[in-house]
Specification:
The chain is an alpha/beta fold. The chain has 2 domains: 223 residues, Rossmann fold; 96 residues, 3-Layer(aba) Sandwich (Rossmann fold), CATH 3.40.50.1100. The protein is built from 15 helices and 10 strands. The protein is globular. The termini are far apart.
Length: 352
């Protein structure tokens, strides 16, 4: 039997009636990849059992699809004809795809020059009306929140509670994939803070154990770490370039309840983790997705997390093709050779 999408798969745990038509692209059921080589690199000889929840294999290439199937399903149920969101890219692409699936008009507000090429391309391909503003993500979110108070438009950002209902299914899947138990540590990037809040809801509701949460923020966009709004957040990890998270308090409550940690990691550390994922495990993600791995590496190095015999899951939130520019910029250029076998054999004999 084919995978039916997260609402149909976990309907007993979600607040949708059996009669509610579901808007789905068969999202979810993403792989949980055992990462032994990466575990050894992060904690040599410690016996860390590390897994990667690769959310980049959702239909639009990010974890946002879990929440968007729920938000768009509810919007259709309530009679909406238009949906809107503010986004740094992944929410926009997901909203555009699910709105197209449902036959809805979709408007997305993005910060001028602050959206990765792969995400912008997807929005345009799905037919969304993309509006670029001279301001930050936080400015865009403030605008759309005010707009929906004046017009009959459904807001599908993570302030929408249905988004969290869909996103919590990631926790259900992790537990099922681990054989019916939660990991010791659940590590993930924190931007608008909806995902960390949703995972905690999911673990609580599923009742198969509770992990400690480790949230990673980029050093230039770390409001939860510093306890204040960051007016001009800056990081190459565009997906988490957010200075005033919508789910700030809920995320802090989840971290506190789990005995968890929120920490800031530098862009250099994020890129280092991004390279390790690709080169040790063959998993290509957008830079922001590596933030949970970078946070885990940092906390092990600082002695804040003892990895001995622990099970950790790092959520990789978006596919690497979301941000191809960064990948190309960080890589060495291709080698150029003449179309000649001798030249190729000569290259083959070089030390790498």
């Amino acid at each position: 039997m084919s995978w039916p999408g997260v609402i149909s798969a976990y309907r007993a745990y979600l607040p949708f009636a059996e009669s509610t038509p579901i808007v789905s692209l068969n999202e979810g059921n993403t792989p949980l990849i055992r990462a032994d080589r990466l575990a050894e690199a992060l904690a040599p000889g410690a016996g860390l059992q590390l897994y990667l929840k690769y959310e980049g294999l959702n239909p639009t290439g990010s974890f946002k699809d879990r929440g968007m199937t729920a938000a768009i399903t509810q919007a259709v149920h309530e009679g909406a004809r238009t949906v809107i969101c503010a986004s740094t890219g992944n929410t926009a692409a997901s909203a555009a795809a699910y709105a197209a699936r449902a036959g809805l008009r979709c408007l997305v507000l993005v910060p001028q020059g602050k959206i990765a090429l792969g995400k912008l391309a997807a929005c345009l391909a799905y037919g969304a009306e993309v509006i670029s503003i001279d301001g930050s993500f936080d400015d865009a979110l403030a605008l759309v929140r005010e707009l929906v108070q004046r017009h009959p438009i459904a807001l599908v950002n993570s302030v929408n509670p249905w988004r969290l209902e869909g996103q919590k299914t990631g926790a259900f899947e992790i537990v099922d994939q681990l054989g019916g138990r939660a990991p010791d540590w659940h590590c993930l990037p924190v931007g608008n803070a909806g995902n960390i809040s949703a995972y905690w809801l999911g673990y609580q509701q599923y009742g198969r154990g509770l992990p400690r949460l480790l949230g990673g923020q980029a050093a230039g966009a770390a409001p939860l770490v510093h306890g204040r709004v960051i007016e001009r957040p800056e990081t190459l990890a565009t997906a988490i370039r957010i200075g005033n998270p919508a789910r700030w308090q809920q995320a802090l409550q989840a971290l506190d309840a789990s005995g968890g940690i929120v920490t800031a990691v530098t862009d250099a550390a994020i890129l280092a983790a991004w390279r390790l994922l690709a080169r040790l495990e063959g998993v290509f993600v957008e830079p922001a997705s590596a933030t949970g791995v970078a946070a885990l590496q940092q906390q092990i190095a600082l002695g804040e997390i003892d990895p001995a015999g622990q099970t950790a899951v790092c959520v990789l939130t978006g596919h690497g093709l979301k941000d191809p520019d960064t990948a190309v910029q960080q890589a060495a250029p291709p080698h150029r050779l003449p179309a000649d076998l001798a030249a190729l054999e000569g290259y083959l004999g070089r030390e790498t």
